[in-house]
Amino acid sequence: MIISFTLNGTRRHLEVRPEETLLDLLREELDLTGTKHGCDGGECGACTVLVNGRPVSSCLVLAPSIREREVMTIEGLADNGKLHPVQQAFIDHGAPQCGFCGPGMILTAKAFLEANPTPARAEVRRALAGNLCRCTGYIKMIDAVMDAADRLRGGQ
Amino acid sequence: MRQFEYLIPSSVDEAIAMRQERVEHAHFIAGGTELVPMMKLRRIEPEYMIELSRIPSLSSLHPQEGGLSIGPMTTHAEIERSPLLQGPWRSLAEASASIREPQIRNLGTIGGNVAYAVPSADLVPPLLTFGALLKLKGPDGERTVPITEFLVAPYCTSLRASEVLVEIQLPEAGEGFGSAFCKLARFHGLGLSVVSVAAALRLREGLVTSARIAFGVATPVPCRVTEAEAFLEGKPPEPSVLREAGRLVSAAAQPREGSIRASPFYKREVLAPLTERALGLAVARSEGRSERGES
User: Fold this and answer.
1) Does A121 touch chain B (CB under 8 A)?
2) Predicted TM-score (pTM) above 0.90
């Protein structure tokens, strides 16, 4: 079936197979491999993308259901080559580590900070609960998100 | 995943007609958080998927006759955030907020949680304490059933072929009503429930005039604990009374052997303090107090 949706700000019209997930569509058809294929069961958060601004596990979303939605992947986050404050804070704090969970983690953090610009540390931990990091260095990520919150409030 | 055809109805009637034409070959899909993994494992191999999540009439959440009307395609995230669920029905928002992570709460729906009928469905115990009514629509028309009659067994409901859950109705709560939901899960209360308790109380002049307690994952199907409810009615909600209610709830549990999450012994041990905690919060809320340390 042919669907229309917005991907990283660009309107797309594509033929999709119903049994394809949004994750498959992004990685296999559109070569957007920033979104990672982890557990394939909605447990790990590596495949997180934003649909209408909200984080969802793209491995659980059937491709036809994104018609007329706005999808943002990690490739769409930087603004003309300028990194988003969450991305920059991740780099500054050494938070990416191996990098596999990063795209999902960063997109989840971006959506969270838009809804909650002045978070407590415990709220950040809860917001990131669905993004597993097997390098296990969550402290740097939480530091980065707290710092990004400061930067976003400061208008940087 | 096996190939299938994806059907997009624009109304409930169209969805019912689509299902009726293809009965055993078709499956309704809501948020997909349960079904999509099952399809990947090939435990479910429908030839047709009928999408319910984008039918507008199924996603409405509004006050109705003093109570609340909840469209079954309302997501957990929407319930968690709705100002309509911060008052008497707060336990439902707490249960929604406790379901796994944001990525799942933005997809999963209350209708999917109720109709899929997993024993650990967190929204069910609060709905039991509210006396929720479920409106079902099928080829032969509409019928409304209490949630107690809807849940038959694990993964089994009284939903007939080609019927759709179209509305969840919460009756008017009234004055002095407070509710709370507490669960034990690993990871700070996120994740699947090991065991859960919902409490809803009405207080007048310092006495419990009505009590509703329901537990989840303590019996094959979540249900109310009438022994504990009857014990509480007419009594002042003092610590010793709440403690005894917790003991009665624990004694009523019949957890199944062989659960990978906890033994029956452990679940019974946890249920008593969990019930006390839920009742304490419900008391505070029915008196219009907010309690320190609640989460």
Assistant:
1) no
2) yes
